[in-house]
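For reproducibility, we list the full input for the iron/sulfur cluster complex.
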Amino acid sequence: MFLSRFSKKDVVSLLESKGGDIINLLRDGNSQREGSNITFSKNAFIPLTEVCRNTCGYCTFRKDPQELGNNLLMFPSEVIHALKESEQYGCKEALFTFGERSDETKEIKNLLEKLGFANMSEYLYHICEETLKKTSLLPHSNPGVISRKELKMLKEVNASMGMMLENCSPRLMKTEAHKKSPGKNPWLRIQTIENAGKLKIPFTTGLLIGIGETLEERAQSLLELRRIQNKYGHIQEIIIQNFRSKPGIPMENHPEPSLLEVLKTVAVAKIIFPDVSIQVPPNLNRETTQMFLLAGADDWGGVSPLTRDYVNPEAPWPEIDELKRLTYEAGFLMKERLPVYPQYINSEFLSKQILEKIQNIDLK
Ligand code: SF4
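The corresponding predicted structure, in tokenized form, follows.
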């Protein structure tokens, strides 16, 4: 248990490290890792819909239904076609990422009704079921804030699920980042992560760094995730994602966090979570990506040999071989993993059909 090991003051003080203390912090973060493997999952990124009830100040993914015309939703045949293609490249994970509660718009609601589904979660269940029936891939879904009942249903057809906490500060609901995003209410997100814990769903979550949060709020967010993990033990990985400014977004002129700021957060996250993988998305940090490994990051997340990363279309995933080279140069080895981490591959965390599916997967 890691219950009261760190106070908020301790965490803030680590995040404020300067000079030689930064080197010590990185060393401490790096020393928490087990072995020298940096894991990754070969995935196919499937953006089921770009419609979202939220309008986050940093988002480049979301579109209004009017902008999308006839492309509101990926249909089951399109999804299976894309997954079949990805299968040929050895992908094991079908990553379903899409706008939150898109069924709150009349356009998506009407379309789902025409297709015979009451809401997006029912549609997602169907898509995951088809994936399991028709491909060798394992679903990992990121539906955003959903109810406990919906999570329970989706557990049956998912190897793991995920949702970023982003930050636990309600103050950000009044700032450019989240003022138009009801789903970014931290209370709702914490409730969803806790419900996933109660249902024993292997879960991915994380923090978005540099969206206007204070160091205290960043520290509190890490401690909040620690509290949840102490209680339920279902968090398999924590993503430390840095805000990147992009032309045209509401936060276009907001400063990006410095490399040191992100490095320190990665090291602190690993120190607080020696039992959880720490992931930094390499596509957002092409030039600096190796540095995060030296601070304790031990997972690259999903790497796709085929589909584009639709959330950040201007930053394509580096080739897997290039990532392998960078990992090796930093003194580590890249190792493929499934969307569910080994410690959760058991009947407590996975449904029978997912467990059976995993038995037929060969990770070379
Ligand atoms: S919830 Fe996600 S998809 Fe929706 S606006 Fe925010 S960042 Fe974009």
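The first strand starts at residue 37 and ends at 46. The CA atoms of residues 149 and 195 lie 9 Å apart. Both points were considered when choosing residues for closer inspection.
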